[in-house]
Amino acid sequence: QTIHQKDYTVPDYLVETVELEFDLDPGETRVVSRLSFICNHERGASPRPLVLDGEELTLLSLKLDGAELAPERYRVEEESLVIDAPPERFVLEVTTKINPATNTALSGLYASGPMLCTQCEAEGFRRITYFLDRPDVMAVYTVTLRGDKAACPVLLSNGNLVEKGELPDGRHYAVWHDPFKKPSYLFAVVAGDLVHISDRFTTMSGREVTLEIYVEERNRDKCEHALLSLANAMRWDEEKFGREYDLDVYMVVAVDDFNMGAMENKGLNVFNSRYVLASPESATDDDYQAIEEVIGHEYFHNWTGNRITCRDWFQLSLKEGLTIFRDQEFSADMQSRPVKRIADVKSLRSAQFAEDAGPLAHPVRPESYVEINNFYSMTVYHKGGEVIRMIETLLGREGFRKGMDLYFERHDGQAVRVDEFVQAMADAGGRDLSQFMLWYDQAGTPVLTVTDAWDAGSGSYTLTVKQSCPPTPGQPEKKPFHMPLVMGLLDREGNELPLALAGEGAPSGTQRVLELTRETESFVFTGLSSRPVPSLNRNFSAPVKLDYPYSDDDLTLLMTRDSDPFVRWEAGQVQALKQIMGLVADFQAGRDARVSESFIESFRRLLDDDRQDRAFLAEALTLPGESYLAEQMEVIDPSAIHAARELVRATVGERLSAELLRVRQKCAPAAPYRPDDGLSGCRRVNTICLSYLMAAGGQDAIDMNMAQLRRSDNMTDTLGALAPLAGCACPERDEALGLFYDKWRGDRGVIDKWFSLQATSRLPDTMDRVLALLEHPDFDIRNPNRVRSLVGAFSQANQVRFHDASGRGYRFLGDQILRLNAINPQIAARMLTPFSRWRRFDAARQELMKKELERILAEPGLARDVYELAEKSL
Ligand code: ARG
Ligand code: ZN
């Protein structure tokens, strides 16, 4: 049941061409598949059987080279179709029947609202027809779609449309041909009553491409931003990487029921509608950014994923880590680079570091899996992205670009491993990256313990860096990693000092990339006149935990003077962390807890500094989140964390109300909202100031929220006012939530936000509210976005209420996972993560969470997805 990386063997047969015919119907779709096979092993006397993958299929007929295959020549098994001793070259024609309407797993061909669509990554194609459903089997596809003209006037598949026409009985057909060889996971079909908006794009070599976004009629006016983002992404990939688009048409379809964010099917991306649809009234600034990012991500896959794909699923990060890195860079170029970096580091540290520290920790390139869908993880995607970023830092921008060019030159059209990518980088950069490969194979977050020594006599300063990495499942010992540590040195006035490494002669600039390769190493800087303050891991150059004993003065210096925005922000976070963890200890010891004056002062300084970019200021004003704080504790105490963080928020709100109001005033909206008005930083600052004022309490703050709610012309400000109200034990809470619901009840995306706001309210009655919302007519357990907005938000973004000592939160989540298990295993498995952290809590909570995991494991008919995570968690 467990698949191991080391067991990889080349496929016994290859497929050269695939011809598919679909008679589309929601209740019963017939699929005829004509596959031309060629033997790929030394045949000898006894050729190996052909074993095709298949799930939930009804086989109707099977022909080999045109002749019906006798029953004794094949077997249909639970998850495969086996043909003994086929010839060396042959054409197999398989006819199967599938039922999209009952496909609630949303993998394969399924119905979403009025349309039929597919999701084939990772192993959904086998739910459409029998096939060698693995990424190293690449073929050229021709697809004929037939369907009812009224129900599905639009019939789409990959590649270029070659023919379409009428059929009897109100039906019609379309034929699509994709000239590029592709693995089955990139196959897609969409059929439905859709409208589209379109644009033209001329590539750098002068080819004309049609861009089309398909949606249901009611969403026609919500696609403009996605279309614009697509053109921007295409231009960006040409400019930054010299990559241009390769088909005549690029289509994006928005569907409401989707397990993940989006899918990069060749020429026909299928998207979760939340990453396509936006209007100025209904979408927040963050929504606009997320759309740009995901549109970019899927577009960039065309080269990093589609033209060059993965040999096997262990190599998933080959395409995902690299494409995450590319979409991060795209967003950084379109928005504010420092603020984007901060946001990415925040999500990495709160979610990926936690994954790396728990029972589900796995390397960026896992060694084994039971269900591959469980490895579409923060580690494979986001740590994978950090690994690519480190290569860029080691090679420099130019070297990295050369490496990318070489990678495309060598491997276009192939299915390769991570090794081939890293080798191209090593060859282009003239570097040895063999030790660097450990990042792909060792799990766990490394810790850098930094100490220093100052020798006034010789003016030399020694930094000693010791790296370690905690054990993870199956990996008790770790070898040292090769990593870039970008750093600088500041004097007490905050000047950046020229860096001269002992033995190197003249200083070279004020910033260096120190390369770590050994467990402990020292770097001696000379020619200094006083003890410097080290500025370490600038731009978060390595995805590690950094341990250096900064004093409060050091932190203030870095916060106000460092040249690296990430370090400036981080210094503030470290200060806040120290403050909050101190209060946590006070609460736990029953001591009087009080926020320090110096902390208030440093917040005052931030608020008084008018030169700061507003979006950066908003990040600097945001305290570390409760889950990140939890990660810092040996035994997590959710109530103490919540109480301590709230105390800081309330104190800031009270003591700095004048400053907060002043900053808000300066950011007051002056003109009607436009998503691209350049004021999103201002809106962010506004929101955070309002939340501090609200934390301090009082009717004035409530009135201010209500006023903002009434006058807001955009979703960012509306939610900025509504979120604090949803967490306020005041009559205005239900009033505001009710008004909001009445206004937006027809808009799925907005109603998702309405569910999440209530699920993440820190008020003590939240569990009851969540249970009531489960019964709300708008709650639909089969819709992944709705499940995420209620079940996911409550259990993953409301630590204090989910971990209520009574265990009610755990019971609730266990119930929902079991419900989902029977409907959509992928989503059920996604909901399980909070339970995987059970060992980090006190004995009573451990017991309660363990009981839920055991209850889940005892369920008859548990899906592979859920089984694997529950079993590994225990
Ligand atoms: N390749 C897609 C992306 O990164 C994710 C699709 C994964 N889907 C799944 N069911 N595992 O954009
Ligand atoms: Zn991706």
TrEMBL record:
InterPro entries: Aminopeptidase_N-like_N, Aminopeptidase_N-like_N_sf, PepN_Ig-like_sf, Peptidase_M1, Peptidase_M1_dom, Peptidase_M1_pepN, Peptidase_M1_pepN_C, Peptidase_M1_pepN_C_sf. Residues 49-186 form the Aminopeptidase N-like N-terminal domain. Residues 444-548 form the Peptidase M1 alanyl aminopeptidase Ig-like fold domain. CDD domains: M1_APN. Residues 230-437 form the Peptidase M1 membrane alanine aminopeptidase domain. GO terms for biological process: proteolysis. It catalyses: Release of an N-terminal amino acid, Xaa-|-Yaa- from a peptide, amide or arylamide. Xaa is preferably Ala, but may be most amino acids including Pro (slow action). When a terminal hydrophobic residue is followed by a prolyl residue, the two may be released as an intact Xaa-Pro dipeptide. Gene3D superfamilies: 2.60.40.1840, 3.30.2010.30, Neutral Protease Domain 2, Peptidase M1, alanyl aminopeptidase, C-terminal domain, tricorn interacting facor f3 domain. Keywords: Aminopeptidase, Hydrolase, Metal-binding, Metalloprotease, Protease, Zinc. One of its GO terms (molecular function) is metallopeptidase activity. Residues 552-874 form the Peptidase M1 alanyl aminopeptidase C-terminal domain. Its EC number is 3.4.11.2. Its cofactor is Zn(2+). Coiled coil: none annotated. It comes from the Bacteria. The keyword NAD does not apply. Aminopeptidase N is involved in the degradation of intracellular peptides generated by protein breakdown during normal growth as well as in response to nutrient starvation. Belongs to the peptidase M1 family. This is Aminopeptidase N. It comes from Geomonas terrae. The gene is pepN.
